[in-house]
Amino acid sequence: MIHPEIPRTVLTPITGYRLLHTKYPAIYVFEDVATPEEFDVLYDIQKLTNPRLTQEVGNLNLLPREEWVLGIRGAHYAMAAFTHINPDGSRFSNGDFGVYYLGDSPETALAEVVYHCQRYWRNVPELKFERFEYRCLETELGGSSFADITGLPDTHPWYHPTDYSAPQQLGASLRVAGETGITYRSVRHREGLCWALLTPKTITSIIQTSLHQIIWDKGIVSVGLVTPT
After folding, report:
1. Beta 181-185 vs 144-148: how paired, if at all?
2. Mean pLDDT confidence for 144-169
């Protein structure tokens, strides 16, 4: 076993939260079928009328077919995290594979997103004033075993606030070993807990629960819920 010194926590079904920019479209072909074989048929049919479908679905080769989650509520959100990956990487991935990140509350998920948005937008010189909207995705996970690093101190390299080289090596080795994911303390929200899913297999349902707006004006000036009209 890779990293046998890391305890494994067996989780009962839990609920986590993830924020996703509204610019990403829903891809319902993942929800309309229950098996990869049915997906192949429906995918070929829909390609005839939607030339953008291949781009929207992403690179399916990044996720083994036995790990696909199809036919569940919100399957498109689960799959997209692993077929559309950030080449710049993230805390537990160097950009070679996808990770579905979750917080234990909407506040934890929002704190993580706000930090990364602020860091990215500061490097976009033409960005003056803009409103960005994010869906809050309530994600249900089935019972599974996670590598648990919550007992490590803040000074451990896996918790470094900006240098992800060490946790990326951890994520890659756990992914190769077939681990489900990692439980860790939020670096951006004190007392918050996070999960990094290395596979979508444990996801059983995803629904949108709220809409959040971040306003940028030479810096983040407002973060809040969008009130329906």
Report:
1. parallel
2. 96
